[in-house]
Amino acid sequence: MACEQAPDCGATSGVISVPPPLDPGMEKVGNSRTATKKKIEWTIGDWGVCSTRCGDGQQTRRVECSDGQDGHCPGPRPPTSRTCTSSDACRYDVGEWSECSARCGPGTKTRKVTCNGPACHEDKPDTKMACTGHAETCDQCTMTVWGGKGFNGWERSFPVGEYSSAELEYQGVKCDDVSSLQVVGDFCESVTYEFGDFNKLHPGWSAVFHQGRYDAHEIESAGAKNNDISSFKVRKIPQSSSNSSGTPVAPAQGQSGGDRSRSSAVQWSSFALLVAALWRS
Questions:
Q1: pLDDT exceeds cutoff 50 at 275
Q2: How far is CA 30 from each of CA 17, 25, 137, 139, rounded to the nearest angstrom?
Q3: Is residue 251 very low, low, confident or very high in pLDDT (cuts 50, 70, 90)?
Q4: What is the Cα–Cα distance from 275 to 165, expressed in whole angstroms?
Q5: What is the 3-state secondary structure (H, E, C) of 157-193?
Q6: Whether residue 183 has pLDDT greater than 70
Q7: β-pairing verdict for 92-94 and 113-115
Q8: What's the chain's Rg over C-alpha atoms?
Q9: For the stretch 102-140, what's the b/e string if a residue is b when 16 or more beta carbons lie within 10 angstroms of its beta carbon?
Q10: Mean pLDDT comparison of 10-14, 26-30, 143-147, 175-179, highest-scoring range
Q11: Which of 3, 124, 181, 257 is the most exposed place for a label (fewest CB within 10 A)?
Q12: How far is residue 152's CA from residue 211's CA, in Å, rounded to a whole number?
């Protein structure tokens, strides 16, 4: 019996040739049995968002070898993290307003405003604003004198007005025994004189005192000699005469001293002045 076989069957040895399997990392190119190695490299992802929205933080990314084995990839592994800086959520820290720079009248308030990160994108709040100072003593104007030692002994207070030696004697002031005095009022001053008629008939020293307390040494240093204050004027200084900090400035020579509330002290008769002059002589 003849052997039945497919065409060309006799041309073979009866053994079917099967190509060997591809090694890992190899691939078949077309119908060719030639195989090449697939390139092994680092697969690098995009950087993620910064870990903070204001200030310094960290960013991370995915880094792995394409065949899953880090040891097969060439060179050192690329970094998977880095520092970053963000200002998306930065805001201003705002402090409290200060007191007005002027005790009385126009002044300025300030406050501290700082960004809490590398940059703030919103409008910066104001750090200064106009204000009007109005301390308790802005509208006051009085002078108090003490006799004896220091701020003890007899005491007399005087509002705005002019006080000759006759008036002071009537008030119980011993002119040669004034040991201390105090002026109250941001826009107040007292002008003291050596003689009881405001030095009109008898030229002598005069001394000016603004708000504050003055002992005997300070009184003499201001020009009032020997504690001998025989007359004085208590008057207001116009607020327009103050400087930018609200501190009053003494009016120029001949400038009006302001309100005279003690009309009786202003309208002394010539007889009273004569008596004062005789009393001092």
A1: no
A2: 19, 16, 103, 105
A3: very low
A4: 9
A5: EECCEEECHHHHHHHCCCHHHEEEEEEECCCEEEEEE
A6: yes
A7: antiparallel
A8: 50
A9: bbbbebebbeeeebebeebeeeeeeeeeebebeeebbeb
A10: 143-147
A11: 3
A12: 19
Contact 185, 140 (CB under 8 A): yes
The label of the residue with tokens 């998977």 reads: 80
Say whether 219 sits in a helix, a strand or coil: helix
From residue 273, give the alpha-carbon distance in Å to each of 166, 178, 239: 8, 21, 32
Model pLDDT for residues 41-69, shown as the tens digit of each residue: 999 999 999 999 999 999 999 999 999 89
Sign of CA dihedral 211, 217, 220, 221: negative
Distance CA 161, CA 149 (A): 26
The two counts, helices (H) then strands (E), for the chain are: 4, 18
Q: Which of 175, 163, 187 is nearest to 224 (CA)?
A: 175
Looking up tokens 């107040």 gives: 188
Backbone angles phi, psi at 24, to 5 degrees: -55, 135
Q: What sign for the dihedral angle of Cα 253, 181, 262, 187?
A: positive
| Mean pLDDT taken over the chain | 80
